[in-house]
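Issue 218. Parser rejects a valid record. Input:
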Amino acid sequence: MTALTDLRPAPLPGAARLARAATAAAPQLIGSVSSIVGLSIEVVGLPGAVGDLVAIDSDDAAGTVAEVVAVTPRSLRCMPLGGVHGLRVGMDARATGSPLTVPAGPELLGRVLDGLGRPMDGKGPLVGAGMTRVPVSADAPDALQRARVDTPVGLGVSALDTLVTVGRGQRIGLFAGSGVGKSSLLSMIARGTDAEVSVIALIGERGREVREFLEDDLGPEGLARSVVVVATSDQPAMVRLRAAFVATRIAEDLRSRGKHAVLMMDSLTRVAMAQREIGLSVGEPPATRGYPPSTFSMLAQLLERAGTDHTGSVTGIYTVLVDGDDHNEPIADAARSILDGHVVLSRDLAVAGHYPAIDVLGSVSRVAGRVTSAEQKQLALQLRQVLAARQRAQDLLDVGAYAPGSNRLVDAAVANADAIDGFLRQSVDQIIASDDSWSALKALVSRMGVA
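Output the parser choked on:
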């Protein structure tokens, strides 16, 4: 069960302590649990607003904390930040009058937090001169206050750094079906990015993979400049949903301190599924494929909070699990319309042992033209033209009907097939600096002779 004291702001010194003591001595309004249906707890007799926390005096010594997700004239509909086992109708409930808060500060680097922002790495409490607690909710940067995206950020993956170049403050999605390599590609970026700090959210994934990611993929050096937020698939829907906003809020705080952070979230689809569970539990009508309308508004609110402001930036990289390899399913389509680019991972490439399985021609960075030089644009374009020509002629090549000399781009693709594949392939434990990737691309284009 979630301890209420873990979610409230730290006590303040001086006059604030006296004010809090006076508040604590005042009469307290006590409500009660009137019903528990599925994931939803209905509380009567209490005032409250959406987002407030409600403490329920359960049989657990720590009590149960729930968040208000809907308000009716007669009751508050809440979602527990923990399990509902042991809760019953008639239990006392108290309004806290405050929303969920999360820790913020540079001391978070190197720490692993749960979905509510509490430490889970056994390294002790979150203390330090720079530590504060801030509400998990926040507004996205004003559209006119955002700095323009004009600086590339290296990801350590050659195919991305050259052909789908990402800018500092951009938001991009990694789209693929299950088992195609989204998490592996994200781990490569986590180790290879040249960003100052990283905030990594593992949401709705297998519990088995958490230690493997921390110890094998991220490693001590990567963890030292990262903050990791974990909410595994067995956690309540409210915790999985809040984990995404906790990670985003931590990244926003780093941005406000002038840092250029990378926010990596695996996966955005699990966040949307958690919102679907919550929405349906409080009575929202199911819309597209069972997703209630609040799911799509939540995605926009979450994704718009990444980006640049006048002090720093948050570069957002989100994995999107496409249902049945359908890249036009509702969540993938909604995410693609909000994000500043998308990277498509191909199952055909993965089956052929081509990793990372990036479909270069199907992937787009909407800011690549603003963060690359004229020469770099030309190099990327020339390789894309060769790949596109080969794709158009693939059927002829497969049946042996292509006549050499018919198309110089196809000839270049066939003659340099191994060199092209060697450039696009990269092992999981290999990190390639952005400058080295551009040099390799320049040498490849020169070898093909298509300039």
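Fixed in the parser; the record now loads. The chain has a mean pLDDT of 90.
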